[in-house]
Amino acid sequence: MRYILDPxxxxxxxxxxxxxxHCVTGLLWLVGQRDGADRLLAAGESADLPAGQRHxxxxxxxxxxxxxxxxxxxxxxxxxxxxxxxxxxxxxxxGVRSARSALGGLLERxxxxx
Length: 114
Known about the structure:
Jelly Rolls; five-stranded antiparallel beta sheet; 14% helix; 41% strand
């Protein structure tokens, strides 16, 4: 399934099983909840996401929108944004408040970098 994040949008992913995230276009900033490791994924690069862990990702503004694909179904929540685009459509996404509080100051730090 393909998802699109506009510049400065963020999302939280919580895969029920091990999942591969593949960046199709743009530049994604990926942070794991448990390890806190930052990774940047450019178009064509992938990262394996372990099951049972929440991961946060954001499209870095200078690179434009970022499209990514997931190899397995995951729960998708917006985080500090008004929407997450999916194939050009903005579906209703539950859990916005919990994702915002989980991210804390991460989005604010991102804004300073952009």
